[in-house]
Specification:
alpha+beta; five-stranded mixed β-sheet; three-stranded antiparallel β-sheet; about 10% strand; binds protoporphyrin IX containing FE; membrane
Length: about 525
């Protein structure tokens, strides 16, 4: 009798689980498909369990098989970078439904709908949760927080990114760029006066330095050691990210996973020590303001306010990881694409150089006031962010059933906002949408597009817009200005134009660029100190 009951209970449980699975993996997706079809929204057919991930991967792999054809006059890279989006948009129009496994994802490129999602109805949408591997890297900081916790953290950290604070970084970051340029010059001098550099690698040194100073300020040296470990961890994660995602794989004690856990532990340990040391210094001085305005100082200061703040040491550790992750590769990608575009378009390189030489003091690192006057360089950076936005897309998730543009979007639906597609849309930006034409930004961002509804959103939109935007643009302007003062550059014959997405938009085969230091100009201007002139 007992066994009979047990068997019957087991059968009932199995039947329940099977029914639940069928509901989640089959019936619900079919109902959602029918629901959207009633509004005229269609897309590739849902397939059991996998959704349309297989077709998506096949489209992306096929698109990345060949680089863009030479000569590189057009920047119509969307079909390569977001191949699945480009392919299905042609069939189903600008709003369509795709499936990430059993999760529905609505692709939305209409600017008015994007405004609803990110501005007017933003309360109905959450940032979506990243891939677990990415989450481990990005930390549980500002990027992934939600609700009140996010709002409080954002308020605490915002002062670190005020221009008055950031301008203090200029001489330090400038020095890092000058040191980098000196190394290139040394390498060039050892050969024929020219040197081939993979800029996508080198720019990471500059952006790592800037983010380390923003995060750790007075504890720069200790912070640098921590972020070195974080770089190693990032390399592991990028490699893992390239491979097919197997649920649970990251918990297996493989050699790579074990090394990555060890690194993570070490990073945490070092950060905790660093925070403790800074905290002690503050306690000794008995004044909280001794923390300084770097991210670490602001967080420690907030954590000392026991009444309104609930920031723990663990939160600070996670936030440091977040900022390193969010701030390093994004900005180095912007620098990489800007350099590649200026190498492809020498007429704009020359215009930008002339402006830099006219505005900046030839012997010093450009000041904040001088950077503000570099209008052409500002236009070039904007045009680069339009054509090659480092974050090519973002995703939101409906927190509840919500109406959007006259269509009911069921709770749990994800919304894919293809930033690059919005920037490349000829209806919004004109027939030359895929051409490099910085002049379109001559009268400011608001007047750059042909259509008043157009969106320029490389840093996102609304309350969750990038907190590091000012830092990124300042760093990029400073770096490109210093390089323009010292070098002329062109694409290497080894360069293959192949933008592709691996978390961010990056050059699939690197970005080899040939730099030549121009002796005539160098005599006139740049940041050369006397001992360098003779080398
Ligand atoms: C060219 C460089 C950069 C680009 C293109 C970029 C892009 C973006 C975008 C598109 C978002 C919004 C994502 C969304 O709405 O889903 C974002 C958010 C964020 N970015 Fe950046 N970013 C850059 C540089 C930086 C830097 C230098 C830092 C930090 C030092 C940073 C830290 C963050 C953080 C913390 C968030 C989350 C903000 C929040 O949710 O409150 N970013 N970024």
């Amino acid at each position: 009798m007992g066994w009979g009951w047990t068997a019957a209970a087991a059968v009932a449980v199995a039947a329940y689980v099977a029914a639940k699975l069928m509901e989640v993996l089959w019936w619900r997706p079919r109902r959602v498909e029918e629901h959207f079809a009633r509004y005229g929204i269609r897309g590739p057919r849902y397939r059991f369990f996998v959704g349309c991930v297989r077709e998506m991967v096949a489209l992306m792999v096929a698109a990345s098989a060949n680089p863009m054809p030479r000569p590189y006059r057009s920047h119509n890279v969307l079909p390569r970078v977001l191949a699945f989006y480009h392919h299905w948009r042609k069939i189903y129009g600008s709003t369509f439904l795709i499936w990430f496994g059993p999760t529905p994802r609505l692709a939305v490129a209409d600017p008015d709908l994007i405004r609803e999602i990110m501005l007017s109805r933003a309360d109905h949408f959450d940032r979506y949760e990243s891939h677990p591997m990415v989450r481990q890297l990005e930390g549980e900081g500002l990027v992934s927080l939600r609700g009140d916790k996010w709002a409080h953290r954002r308020k605490v950290l915002t002062p670190a990114f005020h221009m008055d604070n950031l301008k203090l970084l200029l001489p330090f970051v400038g020095k890092t760029v000058v040191d980098m340029a000196d190394k290139w010059r040394g390498m060039a001098a050892a050969t024929s006066g020219e040197v081939e550099i993979d800029v996508s690698e080198w720019f990471q040194v500059v952006t790592e330095d800037a983010i380390t100073r923003t995060a750790f300020g007075q504890s720069y040296e200790d912070g640098k050691a921590v972020f070195k470990l974080q770089t190693q961890l990032m390399a592991f994660a990028s490699e893992a990210f390239r491979k097919v995602f197997i649920p649970g794989y990251r918990f297996l004690p493989t050699r790579k996973n074990t090394s990555s856990w060890k690194l993570d532990k070490e990073i945490r340990k070092n950060l905790v020590t660093l925070i403790g040391r800074r905290q002690e210094a503050v306690d000794d001085e008995k004044k909280v303001d001794g923390c300084g305005k770097d991210l670490l100082g602001l967080m420690i200061k907030a954590s000392n306010d026991k009444v309104s703040s609930h920031i723990t040491v663990n939160d600070i550790v996670e936030e440091c990881k977040t900022f390193f992750f969010a701030g390093k590769q994004t900005t180095s990608n912007l620098l990489t694409w800007t350099t590649v575009l200026l190498a492809m378009h020498p007429e704009w390189q020359e215009r930008a150089r002339k402006e830099v030489l006219d505005v900046c003091d030839p012997h010093d690192i450009p000041t904040r006031e001088q950077l503000a006057k570099l209008k052409t360089l500002g236009m070039i950076l904007n045009e680069t962010l339009r054509l090659y936005p480092p974050a090519v897309a973002t995703v939101r998730r409906a927190k509840s059933d919500v109406e959007l543009g006259g269509c009911l979007v069921p709770r749990g639906t994800e919304l894919l906002i293809p930033i690059m597609a919005v920037h490349h849309d000829a209806r919004l930006w004109g027939a030359d949408a895929t051409q490099f034409n910085p002049a379109r930004f001559a009268d400011g961002v608001a007047r750059a597009a042909k259509h008043p509804a157009a969106l320029f959103i490389p840093f996102g939109l609304g309350a969750r817009m990038c907190i590091g935007q000012n830092l990124a643009l300042m760093e990029a302007k400073l770096t490109v200005a210093i390089i323009l003062q010292r070098f002329e550059f062109r694409l290497s014959p080894n360069y293959l134009h192949a933008p592709t997405v691996l978390m961010l938009l990056h050059p699939q085969y690197g970005a080899p660029v040939i730099f030549r230091s121009d002796p005539i100009r160098l005599k006139l201007c740049p940041l050369l100190r006397p001992h360098e002139q003779s080398s």
